[in-house]
Write a structure and sequence with these properties.
By secondary structure, this protein is of the alpha/beta class. The protein has two domains: 220 residues, Spore Coat Polysaccharide Biosynthesis Protein SpsA, Chain A (Alpha-Beta Complex); 81 residues, no CATH class. Strands 1, 2, 3, 4, 5, 6, 7, 8 and 9 form a nine-stranded mixed sheet that branches. Helix 11 packs antiparallel against helix 12 and helix 13 runs antiparallel to helix 15. The longest helix has 21 residues.
């Protein structure tokens, strides 16, 4: 099997409490990375000292960059990715622990499947002491078997334009796609932006196995607690034209980026979702004109692909 050179892109910020365990899990990989690229976002604790100590004894190159000003997560990952030189780039947070086979299993997929642009896995959700919380990341975000099969069948746009499937800390991708998604729009979380755009050009491969421990603690930016997921979707359950308008404005950003790339790619699923959102944001008053619009989107299966089927159509038809 071809041995791919992997860069780990690690972003740090005041990570002294858990960073050593994560760095040690890099050193224990059965497929060692070709390099570790760290971008620190102006840490005020001992993060840099921990990194420098690890660098002295690491059995692979470690490059440490300290930002002049705080970039925050999305732009810090953009910077780290841009500094990587490997064929494959694996993203990493500072507070998790990777299983020894994490890099190797991703590289096996990349070597066997040239059509795959991004690989991601499930993760075991644990507390701050690494004790299992009794559920996985995919369970917490309700990433279903049906959605996984769509990805494996090359229908990634259908999945990714409606939800984030891949948690950044679990994912790796081919570096050839960097020029397609950088710069990352700061209004997006980096993993959702990257996977959606790569998914237009290549397949995404979900590994149905936890390949890391995803640590939950009070200081993390985005968590994997089930309560977090419930809150994030609460607003989308309401029939609110302003919500549809905001979702349209949010989704049109990667669409415009892909169009700017000038590549001949199939954007019909993304365009379908945008058309539905635009119509829902400004749907006409109750009456024949609204009925015509609902029937049109229903016949094109947009309610089934990007909503709750007949239930969503009925809501648009009868609710003010």
């Amino acid at each position: 099997m071809e041995r791919l050179r992997v860069s780990i892109a690690l972003c740090t910020y005041n990570g002294e409490e858990y960073l050593k365990e994560q760095l040690q899990s890099f050193a224990l990989q059965t497929h060692l990375p070709g390099e570790l690229v760290v971008c620190d976002d102006c840490s005020k604790d001992s993060t840099i000292e921990i990194l420098e100590s690890f660098k002295k004894n690491a059995n692979f190159p470690v490059r440490i960059y300290i930002n002049e000003k705080n970039l925050r997560s999305t732009k810090n990952f953009e910077k780290a990715i841009g500094l990587c030189t490997g064929e494959i780039i694996a993203l990493s947070d500072q507070d998790d622990v990777w299983h020894p086979e994490k890099i190797n299993k991703a590289c096996e997929i990349f070597s066997k499947r040239p059509d795959v642009g991004c690989v991601f896995s499930d993760a075991e959700v644990v507390d701050k002491e690494l004790n299992p919380l009794g559920y996985s990341m995919w369970e917490s975000i309700r990433f279903t078997e049906e959605e996984r099969m769509k990805l494996l069948k090359g229908r990634s746009q259908e999945v990714l334009i409606s939800r984030t499937a891949a948690t950044g800390a679990t994912m790796s991708f081919r570096s050839e796609y960097i020029k397609k998604f950088i710069p990352i729009d700061p209004r997006w979380v980096h993993d959702a932006w990257i996977t959606l755009i790569i998914g237009v050009y290549a397949n995404l491969y979900p590994i149905h196995e936890p390949l890391m421990k995803y640590r939950q603690h009070p200081n993390q930016q985005i968590g994997g607690l089930k309560s977090d997921i419930e809150l994030s979707y609460e607003g989308m359950l309401k029939d609110n034209a302003e919500i549809y308008k905001k979702e349209y404005e949010y989704l049109v950003l990667p669409y415009n980026r892909i169009r700017e790339n000038g590549d001949r790619v199939d954007l019909r699923p993304l365009e379908d979702k945008l058309n539905l959102l635009k119509w829902r944001a400004g749907k006409p008053p109750l009456g024949a004109k609204r009925l015509k619009g609902v029937l049109s989107h229903l016949m094109k299966l947009r309610y089934h692909r990007y909503g709750n089927g007949l239930k969503s159509a009925a809501k648009d038809l009868f609710y003010k």
